[in-house]
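User:
I study polymers; will you set down one protein's sequence and C-alpha coordinates?

Assistant:
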Amino acid sequence: MLVKGKIAYLTIDDSPSSDFRRKVNYLSSKKIPAIFFCIGKLLEKRKRVVIHAIKKGFIIGNHSYSHIPFSKLTLVKAKKEIKKTDEIIEWLYKEAKVKRPIKVFRFPELDKGAGNKSYPNVNWNNPKVKALQTYLKKLGYKQPKFKNINYRWYKKAGLDKCIDVDCTYDSYDWTVSDKSYEHGIKSLKDLLNRMDENVPEGGRGLNFKKSADIIMMHDHPKLKEMFIPMIKKMLRKNIKFQSFV
Protein backbone atom coordinates (compact mmCIF):
# COMPACT_ATOMS: atom_id res chain seq x y z
CA MET A 1 0.00 0.00 0.00
CA LEU A 2 1.42 3.36 -1.01
CA VAL A 3 1.63 5.82 1.87
CA LYS A 4 1.27 9.56 1.33
CA GLY A 5 4.80 10.86 1.72
CA LYS A 6 7.23 9.07 3.99
CA ILE A 7 5.71 8.21 7.36
CA ALA A 8 7.91 7.42 10.36
CA TYR A 9 7.71 6.81 14.10
CA LEU A 10 10.60 8.15 16.17
CA THR A 11 12.01 6.10 19.04
CA ILE A 12 15.02 7.13 21.13
CA ASP A 13 16.88 4.70 23.38
CA ASP A 14 19.04 4.95 26.52
CA SER A 15 17.42 8.07 27.96
CA PRO A 16 17.56 10.23 29.98
CA SER A 17 21.04 11.60 29.35
CA SER A 18 22.46 14.92 30.52
CA ASP A 19 21.31 16.26 27.12
CA PHE A 20 17.76 14.91 27.45
CA ARG A 21 15.99 18.22 28.12
CA ARG A 22 17.49 19.84 25.02
CA LYS A 23 16.29 16.96 22.83
CA VAL A 24 12.82 17.10 24.38
CA ASN A 25 12.53 20.85 23.84
CA TYR A 26 13.81 20.65 20.26
CA LEU A 27 11.41 17.88 19.27
CA SER A 28 8.56 19.71 21.00
CA SER A 29 9.36 22.88 19.06
CA LYS A 30 9.10 20.89 15.82
CA LYS A 31 5.95 19.07 16.97
CA ILE A 32 7.71 15.71 16.55
CA PRO A 33 6.27 12.95 18.78
CA ALA A 34 8.65 10.32 20.15
CA ILE A 35 8.99 7.43 22.53
CA PHE A 36 11.98 7.74 24.83
CA PHE A 37 12.97 4.25 25.92
CA CYS A 38 14.47 4.94 29.33
CA ILE A 39 16.90 3.08 31.55
CA GLY A 40 15.58 2.75 35.11
CA LYS A 41 18.77 3.72 36.93
CA LEU A 42 18.99 6.90 34.82
CA LEU A 43 15.34 7.72 35.49
CA GLU A 44 16.12 7.70 39.20
CA LYS A 45 18.84 10.32 38.65
CA ARG A 46 16.85 12.67 36.42
CA LYS A 47 13.24 12.49 37.59
CA ARG A 48 12.46 16.18 37.15
CA VAL A 49 13.44 16.42 33.50
CA VAL A 50 11.50 13.22 32.68
CA ILE A 51 8.38 14.65 34.31
CA HIS A 52 8.94 17.71 32.09
CA ALA A 53 8.99 15.40 29.02
CA ILE A 54 5.81 13.63 30.12
CA LYS A 55 4.04 16.97 30.48
CA LYS A 56 5.22 17.86 26.96
CA GLY A 57 3.40 14.77 25.69
CA PHE A 58 6.31 12.41 25.06
CA ILE A 59 5.92 8.72 25.86
CA ILE A 60 8.30 7.20 28.38
CA GLY A 61 9.08 3.61 27.49
CA ASN A 62 10.76 0.88 29.52
CA HIS A 63 14.32 -0.03 28.44
CA SER A 64 15.15 -2.14 31.53
CA TYR A 65 16.78 -0.97 34.74
CA SER A 66 20.47 -1.63 34.01
CA HIS A 67 20.63 -2.03 30.20
CA ILE A 68 22.23 -5.47 30.39
CA PRO A 69 21.48 -7.69 27.35
CA PHE A 70 18.78 -10.10 28.50
CA SER A 71 20.56 -13.17 27.12
CA LYS A 72 23.16 -12.52 29.85
CA LEU A 73 20.54 -12.51 32.63
CA THR A 74 18.54 -15.28 34.25
CA LEU A 75 14.82 -15.13 33.61
CA VAL A 76 14.24 -14.05 37.22
CA LYS A 77 16.70 -11.16 36.95
CA ALA A 78 15.34 -10.14 33.55
CA LYS A 79 11.82 -9.90 34.96
CA LYS A 80 13.12 -7.77 37.84
CA GLU A 81 14.78 -5.41 35.32
CA ILE A 82 11.43 -4.92 33.62
CA LYS A 83 9.30 -4.65 36.75
CA LYS A 84 11.56 -2.25 38.63
CA THR A 85 11.65 0.21 35.74
CA ASP A 86 7.91 -0.20 35.18
CA GLU A 87 7.29 0.91 38.75
CA ILE A 88 9.56 3.94 38.34
CA ILE A 89 7.77 5.01 35.16
CA GLU A 90 4.40 4.56 36.84
CA TRP A 91 5.53 6.83 39.69
CA LEU A 92 6.79 9.48 37.25
CA TYR A 93 3.46 9.62 35.42
CA LYS A 94 1.64 10.02 38.73
CA GLU A 95 4.01 12.82 39.77
CA ALA A 96 3.39 14.51 36.41
CA LYS A 97 -0.37 14.08 36.93
CA VAL A 98 -0.63 12.58 33.46
CA LYS A 99 -2.36 9.29 32.63
CA ARG A 100 0.13 6.80 31.22
CA PRO A 101 -1.11 6.42 27.62
CA ILE A 102 0.57 3.12 26.76
CA LYS A 103 3.12 0.71 28.22
CA VAL A 104 5.92 0.02 25.74
CA PHE A 105 9.16 -1.90 26.14
CA ARG A 106 12.33 -2.26 24.09
CA PHE A 107 14.96 -4.84 24.96
CA PRO A 108 18.52 -3.58 25.53
CA GLU A 109 20.44 -4.06 22.28
CA LEU A 110 17.24 -5.60 20.82
CA ASP A 111 18.21 -8.80 22.64
CA LYS A 112 14.91 -10.57 23.38
CA GLY A 113 16.58 -13.12 25.64
CA ALA A 114 18.40 -15.46 23.27
CA GLY A 115 21.13 -13.13 22.03
CA ASN A 116 20.99 -11.06 18.85
CA LYS A 117 23.69 -12.65 16.68
CA SER A 118 21.04 -13.83 14.23
CA TYR A 119 19.05 -10.55 14.32
CA PRO A 120 16.44 -9.93 13.01
CA ASN A 121 15.56 -13.61 13.07
CA VAL A 122 14.43 -14.53 16.57
CA ASN A 123 14.01 -18.03 17.96
CA TRP A 124 10.46 -17.56 19.19
CA ASN A 125 10.48 -21.11 20.57
CA ASN A 126 13.32 -20.33 22.97
CA PRO A 127 11.84 -20.79 26.50
CA LYS A 128 13.25 -17.50 27.83
CA VAL A 129 12.08 -15.54 24.79
CA LYS A 130 8.57 -16.97 25.16
CA ALA A 131 8.52 -16.36 28.92
CA LEU A 132 9.56 -12.71 28.54
CA GLN A 133 6.91 -12.05 25.89
CA THR A 134 4.31 -13.59 28.21
CA TYR A 135 5.55 -11.53 31.16
CA LEU A 136 5.42 -8.26 29.21
CA LYS A 137 1.86 -9.03 28.13
CA LYS A 138 0.92 -9.83 31.73
CA LEU A 139 2.19 -6.40 32.84
CA GLY A 140 0.08 -4.70 30.17
CA TYR A 141 2.78 -3.96 27.61
CA LYS A 142 1.97 -3.90 23.90
CA GLN A 143 3.16 -2.57 20.59
CA PRO A 144 1.67 0.70 19.42
CA LYS A 145 -0.49 0.35 16.32
CA PHE A 146 2.19 1.12 13.77
CA LYS A 147 0.45 1.68 10.43
CA ASN A 148 1.76 0.75 6.99
CA ILE A 149 4.90 -1.14 8.04
CA ASN A 150 5.27 -3.17 4.85
CA TYR A 151 8.80 -4.56 4.85
CA ARG A 152 8.91 -8.28 4.09
CA TRP A 153 11.96 -8.87 6.31
CA TYR A 154 10.22 -7.26 9.29
CA LYS A 155 7.10 -9.37 8.99
CA LYS A 156 9.01 -12.56 8.17
CA ALA A 157 10.99 -12.11 11.41
CA GLY A 158 7.74 -11.75 13.37
CA LEU A 159 8.68 -8.30 14.67
CA ASP A 160 5.20 -6.99 13.93
CA LYS A 161 3.67 -9.58 16.25
CA CYS A 162 5.93 -9.36 19.34
CA ILE A 163 4.91 -7.52 22.51
CA ASP A 164 8.09 -5.40 22.63
CA VAL A 165 8.94 -2.60 20.19
CA ASP A 166 11.64 -3.29 17.60
CA CYS A 167 12.66 -1.01 14.72
CA THR A 168 12.81 -0.95 10.93
CA TYR A 169 15.53 1.72 10.62
CA ASP A 170 18.51 1.60 12.95
CA SER A 171 20.26 4.96 12.60
CA TYR A 172 23.54 3.35 13.75
CA ASP A 173 24.35 6.44 15.82
CA TRP A 174 25.34 4.07 18.64
CA THR A 175 28.30 2.75 16.65
CA VAL A 176 29.80 6.25 16.56
CA SER A 177 29.11 6.70 20.27
CA ASP A 178 30.80 3.46 21.39
CA LYS A 179 33.51 3.72 18.70
CA SER A 180 32.81 0.23 17.34
CA TYR A 181 32.36 1.84 13.89
CA GLU A 182 30.29 -0.98 12.41
CA HIS A 183 29.95 -0.91 8.62
CA GLY A 184 32.62 1.81 8.59
CA ILE A 185 30.29 4.37 10.15
CA LYS A 186 32.54 6.78 12.06
CA SER A 187 31.06 10.28 11.83
CA LEU A 188 27.98 12.43 11.48
CA LYS A 189 28.62 12.56 7.75
CA ASP A 190 28.45 8.77 7.59
CA LEU A 191 25.20 8.74 9.57
CA LEU A 192 23.64 11.31 7.23
CA ASN A 193 24.85 9.49 4.12
CA ARG A 194 23.29 6.26 5.40
CA MET A 195 19.89 7.95 5.30
CA ASP A 196 20.25 8.31 1.53
CA GLU A 197 20.86 4.62 0.91
CA ASN A 198 18.00 2.74 -0.72
CA VAL A 199 17.98 -0.86 0.50
CA PRO A 200 14.41 -1.36 1.81
CA GLU A 201 14.80 -5.05 2.58
CA GLY A 202 18.16 -4.39 4.23
CA GLY A 203 16.96 -2.01 6.92
CA ARG A 204 17.69 1.15 4.94
CA GLY A 205 14.33 2.24 3.64
CA LEU A 206 13.98 5.91 4.47
CA ASN A 207 13.63 6.58 0.73
CA PHE A 208 11.08 3.79 0.25
CA LYS A 209 7.62 5.30 0.25
CA LYS A 210 5.68 2.02 0.20
CA SER A 211 6.34 1.48 3.91
CA ALA A 212 6.41 3.53 7.06
CA ASP A 213 9.45 3.22 9.34
CA ILE A 214 10.13 2.82 13.05
CA ILE A 215 13.33 4.81 13.51
CA MET A 216 15.73 4.04 16.35
CA MET A 217 18.11 6.72 17.63
CA HIS A 218 20.01 7.04 20.91
CA ASP A 219 20.22 9.62 23.68
CA HIS A 220 23.97 9.33 24.28
CA PRO A 221 25.99 12.31 25.57
CA LYS A 222 28.65 11.62 22.91
CA LEU A 223 26.02 12.17 20.22
CA LYS A 224 25.04 15.59 21.54
CA GLU A 225 26.11 17.44 18.39
CA MET A 226 24.69 14.82 16.01
CA PHE A 227 21.08 14.44 17.12
CA ILE A 228 19.61 17.68 15.76
CA PRO A 229 21.43 17.51 12.37
CA MET A 230 20.08 13.97 11.93
CA ILE A 231 16.52 15.06 12.69
CA LYS A 232 16.89 18.06 10.38
CA LYS A 233 17.96 15.80 7.53
CA MET A 234 14.92 13.59 8.07
CA LEU A 235 12.71 16.66 7.91
CA ARG A 236 14.43 17.78 4.69
CA LYS A 237 13.62 14.34 3.29
CA ASN A 238 9.97 15.20 3.97
CA ILE A 239 9.58 12.47 6.58
CA LYS A 240 6.33 12.93 8.50
CA PHE A 241 6.61 11.82 12.12
CA GLN A 242 3.45 10.22 13.45
CA SER A 243 2.00 9.86 16.93
CA PHE A 244 1.95 6.47 18.68
CA VAL A 245 -1.48 6.64 20.33
In short: The two ends are 21 Å apart (CA to CA).
